[in-house]
Automatic annotation (TrEMBL):
It comes from the Bacteria. Pfam families: Metal_hydrol. InterPro entries: UCP07580. The lineage of its organism: Bacteria, Pseudomonadati, Pseudomonadota, Alphaproteobacteria, Sphingomonadales. This is FF domain protein. Signal peptide: none annotated. Residues 1-29 are annotated as: Disordered. Residues 17-29 have a biased composition (Basic and acidic residues).
Length: 302
């Protein structure tokens, strides 16, 4: 694995108005680590890189194609608060942005591989652009709540990828390692956006904070998931799978076997509870456990 750059927290963060997250917050000794991984651009990743299965491949390709523009939105949103938060959070925002920039770079490269296999993924990126255009002119706290919802969804998926090896079993090793690396950092920074939210909304009532966060979590996650299904079906159609057949196969993949969506639904729904905080589920041991089993597929940072 490449050398890691660790960013220390700095001064302790003591957020006033913390009732929403009082039951459990980000551990004080938790640090974000920027892992500047660069994966082999010349690797012969097959068209159906996930187990030779066009359904599994289409689902992950749909998610990957949505990430670069979405992560740019997260970066822009968090940067708006960098000068308004205590030094500890400011340092974490800097690390978060570095992590997301690296994720974007690697998924752009991965999406290029997908395109090289003849898939049209441009419409997926355009769909994300249309969705995010709805945030223009909204209060910055609105965009922050959207980021919380999508980061929570990403963190739950990431936890499952890291704790259930069967989800990536049979996948091309280079592609699988991109997802494991990304998942590790998603879990690691899962509480940052929420801590910034608690600081940004410290003058709000508990009721308003919960109502805005919960409503947007339901609306945005539903829309994002629905669009990922739509785009995965579109990718399967490009493989000659009729939409009706693809819909049945994808539903079984997501809700039947291996059934990631079925397994993660209750964990996702935790965001709807009063007093929610992402670090009420402590994943530090999971982060520490991550080691690249495919060292030859990881190239030194340029």
């Amino acid at each position: 694995m490449n050398k890691h750059t660790a960013l220390a927290h700095g001064d302790a963060f003591d957020a006033p108005g913390r009732l929403e997250g009082e039951a459990g917050g980000t551990p004080e000794d938790h640090e974000l680590t920027v892992r500047n991984e660069r994966f082999d651009r010349k690797a012969l990743v097959p068209r159906h890189w996930h187990s030779g299965d066009p359904v599994a491949t289409a689902w992950y390709n749909s998610v990957s194609a949505s990430l670069p523009r979405g992560e740019a939105f997260f970066i822009d949103t968090l940067r708006e608060f960098r000068d308004q938060v205590p030094p500890k959070l400011a340092a974490e925002i800097k690390a978060f942005c570095a992590q997301e920039i690296n994720h974007t770079r690697e998924h752009v490269a991965f999406n290029r591989l997908v395109s090289d296999h003849g898939y049209n993924v441009e419409s997926i990126d355009q769909g994300i652009q249309v969705m995010l255009a709805l945030t223009e002119g909204r209060p910055i706290e609105f965009n922050l709540a959207i980021t919380i919802a999508l980061e929570h969804f990403a963190a739950i998926i990431s936890r499952h990828l890291l704790t259930h090896p069967e989800y990536l079993e049979g996948a091309d090793p280079v592609a699988a390692e991109i997802w494991r690396w990304h998942a590790t950092e998603e879990v690691e920074h899962k509480g940052l956006t929420y801590d910034v939210w608690l600081h940004a909304t410290k003058d709000w009532s508990d009721w308003k904070r919960w109502r805005v966060k919960t409503l947007l979590a339901i609306l945005i996650t539903r829309k994002y998931f629905k669009n990922r299904v739509r785009d995965a079906l579109g990718l399967m159609e490009q493989d000659g799978i009729p939409r009706w057949k693809g819909r049945l196969k994808l539903a079984w993949f997501l809700w039947g076997r291996p059934g990631m969506m079925r397994r993660m639904f209750v964990e996702w729904a935790a965001i709807l509870k009063p007093g929610f905080h992402p670090w009420q589920h402590d994943d530090r041991a999971l982060i520490a456990k991550w080691q690249s089993p495919y060292a030859d597929a990881v190239m030194p940072a340029e």
